[in-house]
Amino acid sequence: MEGIMINGVRIFPFLSFDSLFFEISERKGILVAINAEKILHATDETRAIINRNIGYCDGAGAVLALKKHGCEAIKLPGCELWLKIVERCYKDRTFYLVGGRQEIIEETVDRLRTDFPGIRIVGFRNGYIETVEERQNLVDDVVRTRPDVVFVAMGSPKQELLMEEMSARHEAIYQGLGGSFDVYTGHVRRAPEWWVRHNMEYLYRLIREPKRIKRQIHLLRFLWLLKRGKI
Length: 231
Prior knowledge:
alpha/beta; six-stranded parallel sheet; two-stranded antiparallel sheet; 12 helices; 51% helix
């Protein structure tokens, strides 16, 4: 599948989860969730990482941008995608998880082992990597354990930069998850289905967290630039 360039960011126009699964069955790499913020604020470094890997629509803004450029795609929420990957291949693949507070990552691992009996999690650790030595030890452990799939939940661009460092030494399927472990363990509530289905999850989160208004202003700027043909 060929990606579409939007503001210098390559996005793959997947029409289903299955089409994304087919892509990663053909080649390994980093799955990067693309939304309006990532398109608008991509740096040379993050843009290069995205364009070397597999950017998919994780936000309505990315879907709208592709449509504006004459290409259909659907939103594939990262908080759903990672669990679909687990469900599809947990019987014959191994996993490594990074991210969240210590209690969150432990709860995540425990729940995965309950929800997917027999899942092989070869390593995990929290997302608070304070020193160069800790970071190096993590990368070394990924190389040693050789997982097939690595999930990193640290927020952007930290997670993308870490996954890039890992993938340089160990080829696997990587996915950045942001706060998905918190959602999975019930510490953060996701928007109800109606809001998700109507691409209004951002508004639900804004109502629950008014401090997010600064981020949503960027979404309005993105939509204005899109309408003007600047993106």
